[in-house]
Amino acid sequence: MSRSVTHPGARPLALRVGAGLAALALLAACGTDSGDEETPDTGDTSADEEHDDHDDDGHDDDHDHEHDEEGERDFVEVSTLDHRIVFTYDGGVATLDTGSGEVIDDQEIPGFLRLNAAGDGRHVLVSTGEGWELFDVGLDAVEHGDHYHYYEADPYWPDYVFEAETPAHVVTHAGLTALFDDGTGNITLFDPSELGEGEPETDSSYSVPEAHHGVAVALYDDELVITVGDADGRTGAALLDADREVIAEADNCPGVHGETVAEDHAVVLGCEDGPIILHGDHWHKVEADTGDNDFARTGNLFGTHASPIVLGDLRTDPDEPMTNVVLVDTRDDSMQLVEVDAPYNFRGLARGPQAEALVLTESGALHVIDPETGEIENSIDVVEEWVEPEVWQQPRPALAVAGEIAYVTEPATNQIHAVDISGGDVLASYDLEVVPNEITVVTGFPGEPGEHPEEHDHGHDDGEHAHEDDHDHGDDEDHDHDHDHGDDEDDHDH
User: Which residue ranges are recorded for the region named Disordered (predicted)?
Assistant: First the structure.
């Protein structure tokens, strides 16, 4: 089955197995009991609080979609939400609707741009020279009791910027999105459920002691994880209480970079000699078992609340490509190496709907790895063979996941491919008029990676944060309180 669609901003598009893609999009985006989750990178239960008392016959009166300068911006109720792919190109940001195959928004913005999920399933933060510019992609899943209602509108740029000297990492956890400004060390926190079409309340009252390329992760009980370092280097991390006093500090994480949260709220940060893990109120070190090699950099991590195991990259030679990934088990603070068939880079890692570890390599294959065993269960040919460009800002195949579908860019052909992760088929190929670079997928559902969109279960009764004092970590001697091309340009991978 195939069909062609002609639309503004793109050449004719060949949709292979179009009905299959629509069915998978329905499973991934409309709140069924299938257990699907949305793409990594995040949101929180508090996003649904504004949707109480929703009327079955119309849009929630409390869920106010404001007006733009050209008149009323209507959100229309629809039967399901088709994913929208936001992608950058040289000179702008565009949005592709996967249901119609149309490029429905194209915004010219100069400079190299980064894309970050805002945490509410609807907005994207675009890193520009001014800061993080807010982009409303126009999908909204509104919870009503035991089901959802779905609304969509045209994409909208509210003309709002979270100002920053050097906008860097964006992380959503525990109902808050944390923005880290590398230029000043300032951390901005906001509730993504308050974004709407306006300006959320923000807390920018804390800055790290010395500015560096860092990250912050909000935790429950108003606790905060921050990286520690300065302009000359990064050495570790700290857990801060609500008053921003240090609870526990780890000074054994040289070159700290990359963060994620796994099952049971274990926070994992990458280092140059094995990651560190925050269990409750204490840090543990993962020893990198790489033989005689002292350099074992894990700088990009991908976790899910559905699994205790975190996927990470691994570089053992600053001058050689990466051909192994790591699976970090937060239950026993161990690390398993998995060899893949060809080099890969940070834009080719993600997690699947069943917590599978996904790795896109230069062979053109998307490898589906069982995180428990490290076995490659399937290899799906998606793109042609390619070679990573020397400059990390340059386009190369990039991977993003929403539910059962993996979206893969192919800059060499100006395409984005939709892949059925479970079935192993390429369901659709979208032809573009520009070369895609970065990519993120918007589903309309808030939620952190690995959460079922209907449940939003963070495992905290009554909102209380349970420090796992009875967690068995083995030998206490190992537990202090503690893209990578190997050069400075890597510090912007996230």
Answer: 32-75, 442-494
What is the per-residue pLDDT across 320-346, written as a single tens digit (0 to 9) for each?
Answer: 999 999 999 999 999 999 999 999 999
Helix (H), strand (E) at residue 21: helix 18-29
Sequence ranges of the domains in the chain? 2-63+80-492
Dist CA 315 CA 364 (whole Å): 20
Q: Give the separation between CA 183 and CA 241, rounded to whole angstroms.
A: 24
| Amino acid found at 353 | P
Q: How many CB atoms lie within 10 A of CB 272?
A: 20
Confidence of residue 449 (pLDDT cuts 50, 70, 90): low
C-alpha 417: how far from its chain's center?
Answer: 19
Tokens 């080719």: give the residue. 348
DSSP 356-408: -EEEE-TTSEEEEE-TTT--EEEEEE-S------SSTTS----EEEETTEEEE
Pick the CATH number of 2-63+80-492 from 2.60.120.10, 1.10.10.10, 2.130.10.10, 3.30.70.270: 2.130.10.10
CA 107 to mean position of chain CA atoms? 22
Say whether 49 sits in a helix, a strand or coil: helix
Q: What is the pLDDT of residues 369-424, one digit of tens each?
A: 999 999 999 999 999 999 998 888 899 999 999 999 999 999 999 999 999 999 99
Residue range 217-241: average pLDDT? 96
Provide CB contacts within 8 A for 206, sequence distance 6+.
Answer: 186, 187, 224, 240, 244
Q: What three-state secondary structure class fits 492? A: helix
Query: Do residues 297 and 484 make contact, with C-beta atoms less than 8 angstroms apart?
Result: yes
Three-class SS state of 476: helix
In contact, 199 and 162? CB cutoff 8 Å: no
Structure tokens of 181? 């400004």
The whole-angstrom separation of Cα 235 and Cα 250 is 8
Could you write out the DSSP letters of every residue in 259-304? Answer: EEE-GGG-EEE--SBS-EEEETTEEEEPP---TT---BB---EE--
| Alpha-carbon 449 to chain mean position | 8
State phi, psi for 115 to the nearest 5 degrees. Answer: -115, 135
**Mean pLDDT of the residues in the chain:** 81
Average the pLDDT over 144-170 and give the result.
Answer: 95
Q: Is 231 buried (19+), middle (13-18) or exposed (0-12) by CB count in 10 A?
A: exposed
pLDDT in tens, 199-217: 899 999 999 999 999 999 9
**Per DSSP, which regions of 160-219 are E strands?**
161-163, 167-173, 176-181, 186-190, 202-207, 216-218
Tokens (6 digits) for 115:
């894309």
